[in-house]
Design a protein that fits this description.
The complex is a heterodimer of chains A (285) and B (277). Chain A is of the alpha/beta class. Chain A has twelve helices and twelve strands. In chain A, strands 1, 2, 3, 4, 6, 7, 8, 9, 11 and 12 form a ten-stranded mixed beta sheet that branches. Chain A has a two-stranded parallel sheet with strand order 5-10. In chain A, α1 runs antiparallel to α2. Helices cover 34% and strands 21% of the residues of chain B. Classes of the chains: A alpha/beta (285), B alpha/beta (277). At the A-B interface, β4, α8, α10, α12 and β12 of A face α1, α2, α3, β2 and α4 of B.
């Protein structure tokens, strides 16, 4: 119970705390025989971490894996204190965080796309322009050399991980325009962009890939700072809204039978990278 | 490999990254991290390398954001990167850390990056001799007046000695016998450049490849600019790609690609990438 308790106290915010304290099956007892693995991290990585854990668990009888959602920083702190085994982080480490004993493995990438109506003549924006549009600072496309057309910002619901990724990557932590129109799902958002000539929205790679052919053809994807989100520019990191997904291990390299090290090796293997691609992310290992 | 030749041109340049890309059956990717200075060049090299693979499938190159030379070496030792991007020579403590594991860093110099002395745009001087520069950074000259400038104290801004560019600046300017003035302010490159914009009497240095700011001026060294005579210009950092132990075949192929690319571009990339807007 000690590790569970430590993890809960480290989780940021009352909501996260409440979630972490809720009993869930299978509960991990650190005293029980058999290996266990506790993974915690950014909400945007939960789906990927869970899928990797499910596949990793197959063929390893007796291994209990728990995947929790807390946030990159709480997970980093929890890993550094030994409260969890693997931290799942959606950002690179700062210089201070990259301490001796920290191993930060990139396992996947994604690109937050800036989508607009296909008829819009604007095809390329600078980062500050994208930010000004999405935050509601610029309300007419004319201000950026476009047509005299009201800007209509479309967003996913508050709490959607894709919206949070966009807020941190594209808006530097700020919020979308107060009058942004909420769409219930990525498909609804894509449809709304297609129906609104002045629309602009963020749609990450997973969501774009999840759309059917008609949905994907209904919007245009902008280049940012002159760089379009292609495979080449996302692998090279030149596309400005490239997001990295990392698994972090803390502590000196452990024994070969150590399950956290084996889990990260699995995530980086061909089998793990196939899961990365199946979920719509970009394979990087 | 299914359908590879037909989809490649699309996913390289036209199609949305997540729409059709697949690594099924591809060899493992190579990851690079390290020097911020080398980052833009390696990003372009990675993209040109990917384009070559329309005909031979040798694997993806993934560039991680520049985190500095020291962290690039750490990532090699940690096993979290395949290749480190490095500026300057291998620091002795890191070489020792590798040696304790029975391994050595293998370094391939892929370019030479000139390091430019940088002052405020309002500074009346345009050129300093190597000796004058050395005297400024050791603290033997402390006032611009003795160099023909205004009667004002010189504010020396330097980067931490562990930084690749800073280590090379000290090595090529001060040599082994001299040390930097203790009065120098030590700060990261971005902070130094930002401070210099507001400080007419300050001086610092910058790697030629790094992105510049407005309101700054590059000084010639002994009347020489870095651009037209890159091989004679005296202040530089060797830029290299580093592996821990012998590079694996895939890493060796990419390093060879970068070296060939660099050699081909030596004559055409001489121009300063400064933008005075």
């Amino acid at each position: 119970m000690n590790r569970r308790h430590a993890c809960a106290t480290l989780a940021a915010g009352a909501a996260a705390l409440a979630t972490a304290c809720m009993p869930r099956a299978p509960l991990i007892s650190r005293d029980a025989p058999g290996a266990s693995l506790l993974i915690s991290g950014a909400g945007a990585m939960q789906q990927l971490a869970t899928a990797l854990a499910d596949a990793f668990r197959r063929g390893r009888r007796g291994l209990a894996i728990q995947v929790e959602r807390g946030g990159s920083l709480p997970a980093y702190i929890a890993a550094s204190r030994g409260a969890i085994d693997v931290a799942a982080m959606t950002r690179p480490l700062s210089d201070a965080e990259d301490r001796a004993g920290v191993r930060h493995h990139l396992v996947a990438r994604d690109a937050v796309g800036i989508v607009v109506h296909p008829s819009l003549p604007v095809k390329d924006l600078r980062r500050d322009q994208v930010r000004a549009l999405l935050s509601g600072e610029v309300v007419n496309w004319r201000a950026l050399g476009g047509p005299d057309l009201a800007v209509s910002v479309l967003v996913l619901p508050r709490g959607a991980t894709a919206r949070q990724s966009a807020e941190s990557l594209v808006l530097d932590g700020d919020e979308f325009a107060v009058d942004a129109r909420e769409c219930a799902s990525a498909a609804a958002l894509a449809a709304a962009v297609a129906a609104t000539p002045g629309a602009i929205a963020c749609l990450d790679g997973r969501d774009r890939r999840g759309l059917d052919r008609a949905g994907a053809a209904a919007f245009a994807l902008l280049a940012v700072d002159g760089v379009a989100p292609t495979l080449a520019s996302v692998l090279s990191g030149r596309y400005p809204y490239t997001q990295g997904f990392h698994l972090l291990l803390y502590g000196a390299a452990q024994a070969p039978d150590d399950s956290s090290g084996a889990f990260v090796r699995y995530a980086r293997s061909a089998a793990g990278q196939a899961i990365v691609e199946r979920l719509g992310f970009v394979a990087v290992c | 490999m299914r359908g590879l030749p037909s989809i490649l041109p699309q996913w390289l340049d036209e199609t949305d990254v997540n729409a059709s890309a697949t690594t099924q059956g591809h060899p493992p990717a190579l990851q690079l991290t390290g020097s911020t200075t080398l980052l833009p060049r390696m990003q372009h090299a990675a993209e040109s390398y990917l384009r070559l693979q329309m005909f031979s499938d040798t694997g993806r190159i993934v560039i991680n954001g520049g985190c500095g030379t020291a962290r690039g070496y750490k990532a090699l030792l940690d096993g979290t990167t395949d290749i480190a991007m490095a500026s300057g020579a291998v620091p002795a403590d890191l070489a020792a850390a590798a040696a304790t594991r029975g391994l050595a860093f293998r370094t391939t110099i892929v370019s030479r990056d000139a390091i430019l002395p940088l002052v405020h745009a309002a500074n009346p001087l345009d050129s300093l001799t190597l000796l004058q520069l050395r005297n400024i950074f050791t603290g033997r000259i402390v006032n611009w007046r003795s160099l023909g400038g205004p009667d004002a104290a010189i504010e020396v801004l330097v980067g931490p000695a562990s930084g690749g560019v800073s280590a090379s600046w000290r090595k090529t300017l001060l040599g082994d016998g001299d040390t930097c003035t203790p009065l120098a302010r030590v700060m990261g490159m971005d902070e130094r450049l930002a401070r210099l914009v507001d400080r007419p009497n300050a001086i610092t240095y910058m790697a030629q490849m790094a992105l510049p700011l407005r309101g700054l001026k590059v000084l010639r060294v002994g009347g020489m600019a870095a651009a037209p005579a890159p091989s004679a210009y005296p202040l530089y950092a060797p830029m290299s790609l580093v592996t821990l132990g012998m590079p694996a075949p895939a890493a060796a192929r990419f390093i060879a690609h970068v070296s060939a690319h660099a050699a081909a571009n030596v004559l055409t990339e001489g121009a300063l990438e400064l933008r005075h807007e």
